[in-house]
Amino acid sequence: MSESTVRMSGSKIFVRQILAVLGKDLRTEWRTREIFTSMFVFAVLVVVVFNFAIGADTELIRQVASGVMWVALLFSTVLGLQRARQLEGEEESLSGVLLALYDSSALFIAKTIGQMLYLMAVALAILPLCGIWFRIDFLSCWLGLCLVFLLGMFGLSIIGTLFSMITLHTRAYEVMLPMLFLPISIPLTIAAVYATVQLVAGKTLQDITDYLVFMGIFDVVFFTLSLIVFDFIIED
Amino acid sequence: MQVWWLCGLFVCILLVSYKSQLVHLIAMYVSMLTAMWLIFEYAPAEQMQGVVQKIFYVHVSSALTMFVAFGVVCVASIIFLWKKATWWDAIAHSAAEIGVLFCTLVLLTGPIWGRPIWGTWWSWDPTLTLTLVLWLIYVAYLMLRIETHDPKRARFAAILGIVGFVDVPLIRWSVEKWRTLHPKPVLMQEGGTTGLTPAMLLTFLVCLGAFLLLFFYLLRERAKMAQNRHAVEVLRQRIDEALGR
Lengths: 236, 245
What we know:
The complex is a heterodimer of chains A (about 240) and B (about 240). In chain A, helix 5 (about 105-135) packs across helix 6 and helix 6 packs across helix 7. By secondary structure, chain A is an all-alpha fold. Chain A has nine helices and no strands. Chain B has a domain at about 60-185 and about 195-230. In chain B, about 80% of the residues lie in helices and about 0% in strands. In chain B, helix 1 (about 1-20) packs parallel to helix 7 (about 200-240) and helix 4 (about 85-120) packs antiparallel against helix 5. The longest helix of chain B is centred in the last third of the chain and has 45 residues, at about 200-240. The interface of A and B includes residues 179, 180 and 225 of A.
């Protein structure tokens, strides 16, 4: 009886600490909007530059639009992580947060959710833009798109946060983060891009079950793995 | 039957080599020379592909050795995180370096074969794509080791070693799925792995054995070097401390 109460309160503390770290990050972001702004502007830039690279063929652009969108999200993930690291590095706030935490994996989960929320905001902002520029009707398949984007962005956030923590103290952080993050996330990117392509082409949710299951497996595998190894990153 | 004899012989050689470096060296040279002779003299030329097919022995042996190497990185990384002995970190680092070397060999010998047979230097075939992505991951692994000047470097690298290897089946699945969306070029056919005659199989197995022996020899030397380097670093630190710097 007493053991279960201890465990209950332990998990309660855990959830509360996740929310506290997340709340702190989101509050800082809400006041400055530095991370979102740089991610969003960068994503728009990537889409625009790709638009020029592909040329004036509207049919071709429609075909590659989903890929371009995911590449934009991928790059802005890297940019957002770099920005967050800069802001945190200025104050050395991470070690302070770690001291206060009951279980350090709360930090990982909070950072992953935070990163995912930024990504979702960016995706929500660039989807209508892409819809207008590339003449794609995203509204017709919004439910499927929501699923694909949630699973895809959760995976990207996990991998991104994990490698951001690993490369935190490297000399060439700006180079090392994308070099680790991009190749590892290739499978997820492939699944997300082709699921989006098929949805936009008018396929139903059942046609993309394979991709959704795959993304689910990817997320679960890497989330579990990250939680296991996270203590090794933090401990001294 | 012949295959099982060869495998048994190989395991015996490996066990003895583990104990004695001299035996390892001799076994490596003998198997290398035998493999060369088998490839160029003994193995018959393939009917359709001719002499070009002979690169298959080197190519596939390198590819399998590469997977063994990356597997060693993963296992050594897990043991390192668990036991915290620098020896396992040295093994993982060395295996990653040699694995990248073999991966590069695979990426070089593949196009040499593909050009005359497929009519193109490169195709985004699942296996090729997987190898390329693996190369990128493990080059990043080596760069992470160079760029981190932190006592935690070994731990970070170990985590990447595990994550990278876990990623392999996922990459495999995704590139296969991705590839089937594209039409197969007419020039391309399935790789020449099927229908090996007994002579070809023998040549291949000896070649694979030689490559694995080479890998383990390089691993042994490289890990010893890493261990020595670590010892020197520790000594230097101690001297600095003693001099009060």
